[in-house]
Amino acid sequence: MWPVFPASLTAVVVLVALALFVFSMRVVQPAWWRSRRARAFVLVASGGITGGFLLWGLGRATGRLEIVHAGAAVAYVGVIAGLPAALVMPFAALLDRLVVGTRAAATDDASKVSRRALLRLGAGSLPAAAAIASTSGLVSARVAPRPRVVRLSFPGLHPDLEGFRILQLSDLHLGACASTLDLARALAAARELRPDLVVLTGDLADDPGQIPEALRLVDALGARHGAFASLGNHEYLHDIDVTRPLYEASPVPLLVGTGRAIRVGRATLFVGGTDDPVHMGGDIPWFLGPSIRAAAAACPEEADFRLLLCHRPEGFGPAADAGFDLTLAGHTHGGQLGLFGRSLLERIWPGIGWWGTYARGRRRLYTTSGFGHWFPFRFGCPTEMPLIVLEAGLPLGADVAHSTT
After folding, report:
1. What is the pTM of this model?
2. For the residues of 301-346, what is the DSSP string, one character each?
3. Do the beta carbons of residue 343 and residue 337 sit within 8 Å?
4. Least crowded by CB within 10 Å, which of 148, 176, 263, 288?
């Protein structure tokens, strides 16, 4: 369900968590388990998870996306509400046994009642907090992508590129939780941002039939210097022999291991695009290296600024080595969990570039949290349409990465 957890792995995680929970209930048997509220919560959460996965499977079997969406939403509410409780309750059960059971002879009845009440309060508050969080995440996922102005400073930026505005659209997943109607509304709002260039960095649609209309809408936005696109893993997952011809028949050029140079006043801006490794495992920077170098080889020597469209943020290192000034990426959705404008997964898997701006010397990476998603949950990590604004930077050595408004 997460970009890092496909449905099959999510099911395994849920089953393991439920096994731990059942173990604690059957073997440790904490006193608070006799509470009707605790049992009702477990029944509702388990029913939601089971029913959600059944709906999810039914939708996939029948090709009904609306059933897939409903099943994913129901299952995810159950997972968010029940998983933390299932993982923590075994420890709470053991604590109940150790604190209350082993000291029973040494404490009076009032003390035992107090400890039991505290444990019951803790066990009951966790599911309630998880349920509130799951509801908040579902509501947040339904909010339309918000424009986000990201100002990036580059030392020695050509004066004619000062204030150049790049609208990035990534991970729309049209047909999953968004449609071309949602895109049309978002582009109508984006017109007020007056972008000079529009770029798409992969995973445009989970329903390939929506690709032609989506690309037509992007082209119709009428950005001064047009639009360019690169591939994501979902273009491959939905059959590259189907999706790539749809791109190539559109008015939006698809860049795969190549690029285009455009004139911006007296300046030359080069836009390159990469291929995608499709799968999650393996050495992704190693895979992306040849595609990035091929794109760099297409760049004219006189280019004043080099921009790379790379679906995966892991391409930032090879892109910086190849001389690209700015890499725009997506794919991660920011983990769909964030705090203070950064992904919570930064702490677990650092070095990827989950969400936001990253610097390597004078080179920059911006990873967007994405326009859409393929399951309806976000917490502290809203969808977005970043507008990248190029600004002349300070001299080398004074490294100012970004500011946002």
Report:
1. 0.72
2. TT-SEEEEE-SSGGGHHHHHHTT-SEEEE-SSGGGGBEETTEEGGG
3. yes
4. 263
Q: Could you count the other beta carbons within 10 Å of the beta carbon of residue 113?
A: 12
CA distance 15 to 53: 12
Joined together, the tokens standing for residue 321 give 């080595």
- For residue 380, give the H/E element and its range: none
How many CB atoms lie under 10 A from the CB of residue 229? Answer: 26
Cα 112 to Cα 373: distance, rounded to the nearest angstrom: 48
Distance from C-alpha of 202 to C-alpha of 330, rounded to nearest angstrom: 8
Question: In the structure encoding, which two tokens stand for residue 383, read together?
Answer: 């969808």
Residues 6+ apart with CB under 8 A from 361: 320, 396, 399
Strands (DSSP E) contained in 184-292 are 197-201, 227-230, 258-264, 267-273
Contacts of 354 (CB under 8 A, 6+ apart): 313, 332, 334, 335, 342, 343, 345, 346, 367
Q: What is the DSSP string of 41-91?
A: HHHHHHHHHHHHHHHHHHHHHHT-HHHHHHHHHHHHHHHHHHHHHHHHHHH
Segment 321-328 mean pLDDT: 98
Cα distances from 214 to residues 83, 103, 372, in angstroms, run 37, 67, 14
pLDDT tens, 115-149?
555 555 555 554 555 454 545 544 454 556 778 89
